[in-house]
Amino acid sequence: MNADTVRRVGLSLAAPALAIILSLAITSAVLAAAGNDPFDTFKQMIEYAKEPRTTAMIINGSVTYYFAALAVAFGFRMNLFNIGVDGQYRLAAMLAAAVGGAVSLPPILHVGLILLVAVLVGGLWAAVAGLLKVYRGVSEVISTIMLNSITTALIAFLLTTDKLAVQAEGSNNIGTKPIPASGQVPGIGLVPDSPLKVYGLIVLAVIVGFLYWFVIEHSRFGFDLRAAGRNEEAAVASGVNVKRMILISMAVSGGIAGLVGMPQLLGSSYTYSLDFPAGIGFTGIAIALLGRNTALGVAIGALLFGFLDNSSQILDLEGVPKEIVMITQGVIVLSVVIAYELVRRYRIVAQQREVGRRLSEPPAPAAGNDKTPQGAQA
Amino acid sequence: MPESEGAAQSETGAAATVPAVELSGITKRFPGVVANHDVNLRVRPGTVHAVVGENGAGKSTLMKTLYGMHKPDEGTITLNGEQVVLHSPADAIARGVGMVHQHFMLADNLTVLENVVLGAEPRRWGGFGLNRAAARTKIREIGKQYGLEVDPDEMVERLGVGDRQRVEIIKVLYRGARILVLDEPTAVLVPQEVDALFEALAVLKGQGLSIIFISHKLDEVRSVADDITVMRRGTTVATADPKTVSSRELAELMVGSELPSPQTSDSTVTDRPVLELSGINLIDGARHLLRDVTLTIHAGEVLGLAGVEGNGQAELVESIMGMRSVDSGTIKLTGDDITSWSTRRRREAGCGYIPEDRHRHGLILDAPLWENRILGHQSRKPNVRGPLVDRAGARTDTERIVREYDVRTPSIDVLANSLSGGNQQKLIVGREMSGNPKLLIAAHPTRGVDIGAQTAIWDLLRTARAEGLAVLLISADLDELIGLSDSLTVILRGELVAEVDPSTVTPEQLGSAMTGAGEAA
């Protein structure tokens, strides 16, 4: 049993290790081909990441990514591919910002209301795709992509000065009315000596991550969800109402997606403006793949992507194109998918052999009790 | 049944002719397990050579070796006198070896022609076009030559099981195979279709093709084969002459022990109805999938449902389990009208279900055994406590099932796909028998399991019956159906067309009733 545990842990670490080694190797090759010293480049990135300010930025970037990746991962667990996280968080952030800027409430309530609006908007927007899938058989891949485009148009329509937006002072930028202090979440001085504080909503990220793990792994709902994700037909036969599960999990996925913009909105920008970050939902897909849809794995993936994004800022100054990092990110995702599939197959075969070995008594060499009326063949 | 025309001639000429296939001393090891050791097989040209053995006896490993899917560690493969090394199935195909798999590998949404040429398309327009005309001609020729006629332009989804199998054989012949490996070809066929298959095999054999026929069904093997090789525990243990050996002797060679039979003992049927269906109709567009199905199963009764596959059995089961909603009629379980209940509620009320396709409907293959034990019982003790999964409870109860139902596994943490079919099935039976079911639906409960597991499952069904369960048994194995059932009903095109007495009916009579050809006994 103990040896088995060691083996199991070893095998589950094998895939990510393989993936990282592979992607480092490929990135190094690309760097070397472009005439840069790979080791020197990595060293610079690590040195830069160690600076307190960069470390804080890495953590902040990771918090945002974490929500996005968890949203995607929740769908993946049910075999739903929610490509619409991007649209869901943007719409949620915009409307939550508008509501947050429009009301004035006591501090905690104010934040709570903004988060609630964000979760509801994200969840309902994703539920549109869920409804289409359940009642019309529309693939969620198609509908969520289209909803992303609709979101972009909708935000462009709503974010004008005669509707939800106001002119930002001293710039051409427009955004929702800034959220007053009661709706802001103060940062935490998590990194010593850093002028930049870490988003206070990191606490929420930890809580959501824990809930994600607990619900998926330990609740009946999570069991039904995983069953439906792994074998839909068997789940139906076992009494799971798959249509309801699709609706619920799309909505939950969208709800988590609604939180993606919150650290930035409540922690630094306080307004949804034209330059609010977009595209995080797609990064979330990559990170969910990287983290194999587990709460912990996704956290590590988010940190890795946060590190690559922020520490690469130094590279341009050193004459290395920082786009190299995008290559690395892409390579990591591909390597992870390949490495996990290889390890998964190896595992199944290894286990089948193991079971075969433990169950079959070693075949008696002479097979003495064989009744062979016509004799064994020559 | 085919005349074994080749047998007489080849009996004497055996020593003189070069064998079509000769495997000698084949050993194939996987780390930790020897799948085949010292296997010897000699197939005379123009004959049907049966390879029999229990599941896990190494037949599939051997056939994979012959089909080039892996290389043997020791031993040689000789085809038509020439020793060969096969690196891939493509190699095997190039040398005239063709394989017809047990599970059909056809694309339903393509035509027969498209399925046949898939991967070996005749080209035109400089390689960019599919030369349908050429393919059609060739398929028709094959059909005429070997008596395997199927309309090349029919969609595969509209074909019955027998025709699908014919398409599989045509596919192999189209690629020029002269040596055919058929893996359990009769598992899915009714007697009449089996006869048709055997006629086709006789024609193939007459044209000089060699056929390796893998099967469990010993009566069939004896009627179709010219030679029999028996495998047990990874090696060939005997050869037998189908004309002199009895099924019982063959089976004993396979198992190395006494044989089971599916007879049930005294009747335990009571007058307490458990499942009552009345006037069930299920309509899909213009098609009547079920028409006025009315039946009652009492406590302690096994009701056998006989029918050619695709005549509404699956739909009936799904209706009873609540996976489909019926268009009219009522379903009652011990007096309660459950027609509008969800699947989960029906399961909680005591409906156990051993599905027809355990991989698709019964298990999560990449989940450990204890998680599979929870499946279908997600709302009941000992698997859950309130809204949470009770891992400890589920695990303990899985240990119990493994023990009581003799599931052979080193641990309950292995994934379900590591177990053999028989052990997977025993786990399912054990699971479905937990939680005091009142009704057990057993669809093909022994399909694809070895004889040891088959006996065990029959015993379990008998025990269930003795404990007062109502059992709905659906099976393509007519002996099993006749042997286990207290009453038998025949379903044809969604209608219950005949009731027969299992104590007097023969498999042939039942087979005729199933095809609507004759009157039941």
Automatic annotation (TrEMBL), chain B:
Q: Which GO terms describe its molecular function?
A: ATP binding
The organism's place on the tree of life at top rank: Bacteria
Instruction: Indicate yes or no for the key word Ribosomal protein.
Output: no
Q: Which SUPFAM superfamilies match?
A: P-loop containing nucleoside triphosphate hydrolases
One short Pfam name that applies is ABC_tran
Q: Which Gene3D superfamilies match?
A: P-loop containing nucleotide triphosphate hydrolases
Which InterPro entries would you find in this protein's record? AAA+_ATPase, ABC_carbohydrate_import_ATPase, ABC_transporter-like_ATP-bd, ABC_transporter-like_CS, P-loop_NTPase
Record key words, sorted: ATP-binding, Nucleotide-binding, Repeat, Transport
Q: Which SMART domains match?
A: AAA
Q: Where does the ABC transporter domain start and stop, copy by copy?
A: 21-258, 275-518
What this protein is called in its record is: ABC transporter ATP-binding protein
Q: From which organism does this entry originate? A: Kineosporia mesophila
